[in-house]
Amino acid sequence: MGNIVAIVGRPNVGKSTLYNRLIGERQAIVDDISGVTRDRQYGVCEWNGKSFTVIDTGGFVPDSEDIFETAIRDQVRIAIDEANVIVFMTDVTTGITDLDEEVANLLRRSEKPVFLVVNKADNGQRMLEANEFWSLGFEDTIFISSMTGSGTGELLDAITEIVEDEPEEESELPKFAILGQPNVGKSSLVNALLGSDRNIVTDIAGTTRDSIHSHYNKFGKEFLLVDTAGIRKKSRVKENLEFYSVMRAIRALEEADVCILMIDATLGIESQDLSIFRLAQRRNKGIVFVVNKWDLVEKETNTARDFERSIKERIKPFDDVPVIFTSVLEKQRILKAIEVGLEVYENRNRKIKTNQLNETLLPILEKTPPPAYRGHFIKIKYITQLPTYFPAFAFFCNYPKHIREPYKNFIENQLRKHFNFSGVPIGVYFRKK
Question: Based on C-alpha coordinates, what's the Rg of the chain?
Fold first, then answer.
């Protein structure tokens, strides 16, 4: 199971601030709107030579009609089920509320170790007032100020005493980010894969406000899923939150090895999708297009082949990208999308031996050399793959500066034709021999 520490409590008691302090970065969305942290946030905290995962649960608001709050309540229960340690946060400035009592009752029933953390105890007066929280009956009660950080060291010491030592292992698993516009079906795809309601799935655009990492290990396939907030058109980013979501999605893209770009079959590829695609391409990420809601498209007028052609037309010159047609609701071809994602991951890590490169490509380049420059014949003499994290190749020649873009594209096409780099941007560089 690993060492998982979940932070639970009412909205606005400072859970996200504490989480950020533990993780050491601004990962959760911190905003004064109640219940903004709508999804579980995962991050790793390292302390005293041990590392554990911290989960920032959504605001815990029972007995409410609000669709999110009901879902959030379930999520806190899930956190109680899944975590190894619970940090229950309260706020000294509001005292013990009915809601705190309710959470306390839930937690006392769980078998898990619980730390009651009383936040905002940042002066003598508040320290005194914080004593009433002992009445909730938790042996481990710690007074902190998550803004200034006082008391967090004590909390971390206490947590690390409980969590067990884990062998250090860098995650060598492929990371997949699922990107796309709101309502394209990203959360449904994640849930269909993981088989549990990992996200709150409702038909409100932009419910997925932050990204989550989920470990997938089924059918002999293993990878990490980075689910992301729907990326919005810039003009629609009215509140800072939305802007932040865009930032998060871009960051998820940065974290990923392969981007699964979801497109709504009923809308076709839109400029928003293209800008995500270009960004992924510039950052040298693997890319797979997943056309979702294919079950809703009139097949007479629009075949999969036509649709694929229209996508590739828009993304030229880099159009060696797999396109998979799915219906997430009907669970069609979901595993296919994953298989292809893993193939793209392999393509991105593909290393080709120097002799193989030269034997395959040199004869072709001799037959079709670059156009001469001012009477000078340009000759490519030697090719080698560069030691980068994505496929990049150096072509050594006598006049590297005078090779033009069309010839570079020709070379890239030859590389793609003879070696499998489907879904992966390739770097082609010319160097002086």
Answer: 26
Give the sign of the dihedral formed by CA 324, CA 329, CA 330, CA 331.
positive
For residue 320, CA distances in Å to 49, 384, 404 come to 45, 22, 21
Query: Are residues 80 and 86 in contact, defined by beta-carbon separation less than 8 angstroms?
Result: yes
3-state secondary structure of 86: strand
Contacts of 52 (CB under 8 A, 6+ apart): 2, 3, 4, 5, 44, 45, 84, 85, 159, 160, 163
Residue whose tokens read 């009609």: 65
pTM of the model: 0.57
**DSSP string for 156-171:** HHHHHHHSPP------
Beta carbons within 8 Å of 15's beta carbon, 6+ residues apart: 7, 8, 9, 28, 37, 56, 57, 59, 89
Q: Which two tokens stand for residue 35?
A: 């219940």
pLDDT in tens, 277-336: 877 887 789 999 999 998 888 877 778 888 999 999 998 888 899 999 988 777 778 888
